[in-house]
Design brief:
With about 140 residues, the chain is mostly helical. It contains 6 helices and no strands. The radius of gyration is 17 Å and the shape is elongated.
Length: about 140
């Protein structure tokens, strides 16, 4: 069985690198939230402190971790041209959507811009990786 492989266009690499940077920011946000000390939280503004003081259920925190780490690994998979990126992006999108549904329903969100942006980017990366598979850019 032979597999077809096409050279991806330059914009594929640009989008993949931008997606990697986006997901790296998500990983940093998760690690900051997970490992913030009381001194670090005390040095923040009152609005930022309230985000750290809200106690999320364990499954929401797990969904956050799953979303950012699977998204980050999905970007690595894109860059090494592996089609399992698609599965990782699907997991990332489902986890991000579950996390944000809980947040929308239970937390007084000051701005919907960032949570909606996260979901849009997750769904875009699912589509983007599926498109890359269909065009034989990743295999």
């Amino acid at each position: 069985m032979t597999t077809l492989s096409n050279k991806p266009p330059v914009w594929f690499w640009i989008v993949s690198i931008l997606a990697l940077l986006w997901n790296l920011m998500g990983v940093i946000a998760y690690l900051t939230m997970a490992f913030a000390t009381e001194e670090m939280i005390a040095s923040l503004s009152p609005e930022q402190q309230s985000e750290f003081l809200f106690e999320y259920p364990a499954w929401v925190t797990a969904a956050f971790a799953l979303a950012v780490f699977s998204g980050f690994l999905g970007c690595i998979a894109l860059l090494i041209r592996k089609k399992w990126a698609y599965g990782l992006f699907v997991v990332s999108a489902i986890a991000a959507i579950a996390q944000h549904i809980y947040i929308f329903m239970n937390v007084d969100v000051q701005s919907y811009f960032m949570p909606v942006s996260v979901i849009v980017v997750c769904l875009f990366l699912v589509w983007f990786s599926k498109n890359a598979i269909n065009n034989y850019w990743i295999s």
